[in-house]
Amino acid sequence: MDALEGLWSITAPASCLHPGWPPLHGRSEVMDSWQRIMTGPNPPQITCHHATASLIGEVGLVTCYEQIGREWLVATNLFNREDTGWTMFHHQSGPAAAPPEMDEIAETRPVN
């Protein structure tokens, strides 16, 4: 949780859309949701695949596949440049229509 606390912006308005959840707004709601997810009885092992980043001014856009067990999600993460570096202010994920191509799976990075 410390890594997530440091990743999320404390100055930009935070928002998050977890699959099946209502939209969450504000750092407190967002961090509470991650606390419940990551410290619950069966915290997910999330692996990021095929991340692609774009820079639009002071905003970074990262899209990727997330693998949780046998399930595949697609995710969008928005970051802003602050005095301390890049911090996330938006995360959204939902079911993927299909997993990535096998050559893309080689590009993996565990998230937690």
Rounded mean pLDDT is: 91
Provide the CATH top-level class. Alpha Beta
CATH third-level topology = Nuclear Transport Factor 2, Chain: A
Oligomeric form: single chain
Counting helices, strands and paired strands, the structural category is: alpha+beta
Shape: globular
Using only C-alpha atoms, the radius of gyration works out to 14 Å
What is the H-and-E element order?
Answer: HEEHEEEEHE
Do you know the CATH architecture?
A: Roll
| Strand adjacency order, main sheet | 2-1-6-5-4-3-7
Would you kindly provide a written description of the structure presented here, covering whatever features stand out?
- It is a single chain.
- The chain has 112 residues and is α+β, with helices and mostly antiparallel strands.
- The protein has a single domain, classed as Nuclear Transport Factor 2, Chain: A.
- The protein is built from three helices and seven strands.
- It has a seven-stranded mixed sheet, with helices on one face.
- Strand 5 and strand 6 form a beta hairpin.
- The termini are close together.
- The mean pLDDT is 91.
Main attributes?
112 residues, alpha+beta, Nuclear Transport Factor 2, Chain: A, seven-stranded mixed β-sheet, globular
Summarize the structure.
It is built from 3 helices and 7 strands.
Map the helices and strands.
Layout: H1 2-7, E1 15-17, E2 24-25, H2 27-39, E3 46-56, E4 59-68, E5 71-82, E6 85-95, H3 102-105, E7 108-110
Parallel strand pairs: 1-6
Antiparallel strand pairs: 1-2, 3-4, 3-7, 4-5, 5-6
